Amino acid sequence: EIVLTQSPATLSLSPGERATLSCRASQSVNTYIAWYQQKPGQPPRLLIYDGSNRPTGIPARFSGSGSGTDFTLTISSLEPEDFAVYYCQQRSHWLFTFGPGTKVDI
Amino acid sequence: EMQLVESGGGLVPPGGSLRLSCAGSGFTFSSYAMSWVRQTPDKGLHWLSSISDSATTTYYADSVKGRFTITRDNSQNILYLQMNSLRAEDTALYYCAKDHFGGYGKFDLWGQGALVTVSS
User: Fold this and answer.
1) Residue A35 and residue A54: Cα distance in Å, rounded?
2) Are A35 and A64 in contact, with CB atoms under 8 Å apart?
3) A37 touches chain B (CB under 8 A)
4) Predicted confidence (pLDDT) per residue in B99-117, tens digit
5) 3-state class of B108 per DSSP?
6) Contact at CB, B110 and A45, closer than 8 angstroms
7) How confident is the model at residue A9 (pLDDT cuts 50, 70, 90)?
8) Which residues of A touch B46 (CB under 8 A)?
9) Does any CB of chain A come closer than 8 Å to the CB of residue B108?
10) Do the Cβ atoms of A98 and B107 come within 8 Å?
11) Would you say B111 and B5 are in contact if contact means Cβ atoms under 8 Å apart?
12) What are the residues whose beta carbons fall under 8 Å from the beta carbon of A30, sequence distance 6 or more?
């Protein structure tokens, strides 16, 4: 099983600031990493898939990068609605696994 | 609007069974692989099972293999998860999720979740 580690656990920032979230895999997952945002009482929302691809409707301030074992989600300028928990997830190997999450708070 | 709506959650004793349903609308259900993912406060998000668009192929996490069965009815746009031999550790919020076009494991639409509690 591929273990995903996310850092930091909590990121305290202000609106307008840049957020950089990290995800590290226990072995190479190529670029098969997705990032999700989850707000309280809501299901996860796909932000990035396959490392750097944004689904339709995801704002351009969200970007993903990385390959192999190290990945980054960047939010270029935080909007008030971006304060949430962010999870990475790999689909390189069955079984798919998720990281423990990074909470971005004000 | 694309939507997934789960139903069938509830309280069940250890060793019992439950069947979750997930109704899809607003998209061509039969064109996409579908999956089940569960979430608990302590263990986080955990992928359980996926099924191909045509229902010919299924995949399971080891934790549920042999106990849970994923199926789908494309004529009714419904995804199912039959859960047998339930354990306390199966207590969770269960989500169904649609896979993004072009492969498994890119969950681009999620339901609101169905709460399953396994307790005597």
Assistant:
1) 10
2) yes
3) no
4) 998 778 899 999 999 999 9
5) strand
6) yes
7) very high
8) 98
9) yes
10) no
11) yes
12) A67, A68, A92
Residue with the two structure tokens 């950089």:
A20
Size of interface A-B (CB pairs under 8 A): 52
Q: Which of A94, A102, A103 to mutate to test the interface with B (most CBs of B within 10 A)?
A: A94
pLDDT of amino acid A93: 81
CB B60 within 8 A of CB B48: yes
CA distances from A59 to A54, B62, B100 (A): 8, 36, 18
Q: Which residues of chain B make contact with A97, given a CB cutoff of 8 A?
A: 47
Contacts of A93 by beta carbon, 8 Å cutoff, 6+ apart: A2, A29
Tell me the average pLDDT across B7-31: 97
Q: Do B45 and A87 touch (CB under 8 A)?
A: yes
